């Protein structure tokens, strides 16, 4: 028969009981101390709030003046109007460096140059090409031989026009005197009469057979009379200045051709006289420019008017330029245009619509104490950039004045007035209450008998603790009531449990409970006490 063996119960040692008791005592002590501190802090807060309420005035005076809202301490970095970095474009040994930092330079100045004996032969060839093209361009402008040839052609064409005009005009001249012209006229009339007589006789025998001798003779006589009549008519017309239509057409065509040839000769002469054509000039100038660009790769030439800001080139430096290398850019000189300075800043999307182009700003520098500068907003970005879940818009400020104290790269503090009312009637926000309807804003105006009149107001611009009020019933100097400080104890996060945690975790040397945030002092915006 199995027998169950009972295990002995574990006994708590005396030492363990002592430890538990000590921990319970400490815990009760902490709870008690926390509750005591909670009561002390609560009493201190109430005391300070009562003191503030007693010190706070009952009324304040309505003020009139300027209200402004300003975006302060917007940081930005100063930059020059333009910075140009000039790099070597070919290999060689630096022969001369003609500038130092701070030197003023003009567009086209040669700042540094490579030794001709160390540069590539293609640059020397480009110099020759450039000189030849320049000579060709000069010849286009100064050639006299072409001008004389064009003038000769123009004179000849003009003479041809004159001859053609004479030929055409001569077709209508009377070539004889009146007596001879009368004889030719009489001959022409007799020829007409002979022709009509011969025609009449032929008409009378025309019904005869075609091989009839009488008909044949009559037809031959009529044709002979017609030929004599035409001859007499031509002679009379020639002596009388009459011309055939074909002769007139030929003479007119010859005159038109001569005029067209004259026009061409005049245009050719004017082209040469006035200089080369634009196409000719552009073609040769393109050759000159291409050659000059190659030649200038051995030089550092300033492209702008400015001031030397950096010089990296030194005489006898060996420049190894590799066109296909990623590290081919070898800085020689940097030029800054210091005629004006700009500051790049950014503002949030909540502020951007209160800013406009042309708006004035004030500028200060930590590096230039006791000086205040002004500027103008000249550019506003239309697209924002997201940064840490906020959207910012970039702005550019142009400084209105430039002096030697301002350097590129300095940190500037920019202030922008976003709202401004120059002649505002205003009070502190504590003087504004909400009427019983829950929507109307009022201020309580102190009357001469000591009572208060609720005056409806419209609120305008708010600036700090002050707010603009609009009302026909109020004026500068009127006295209005202000709202007293109310107990905020119920709105704080202070609780008994928090007090325990605060006191347990407070570092040594902490200040007394209730100091700092709940310290006494006159609330801002208060008027004079009554």
Describe it for me?
The strands form 3 sheets. The protein has a 6-stranded antiparallel beta barrel. A 4-stranded antiparallel beta sheet has the order 6-5-3-8, with no helix packed on it. Strands 1-19 form a two-stranded antiparallel sheet. It has a domain of 90 residues. The protein is an alpha+beta fold.
Runs in which pLDDT lies below 50 for 5 or more consecutive residues are: 172-176, 486-530
Q: Quick one: overall form? A: elongated
Helix content range: 25-40%
Largest sheet: 6 strands, antiparallel, barrel
Oligomer: single chain
Q: Rounded to an integer, what's the Rg over CA atoms?
A: 56 Å
Structural class: alpha+beta
Question: What's the number of extended β-strand segments?
Answer: 19
- The string of secondary-structure elements, in order, is HEEEEEHHHHHHEEEEEEEEEEEEEEH
Secondary structure tally, helices: 8
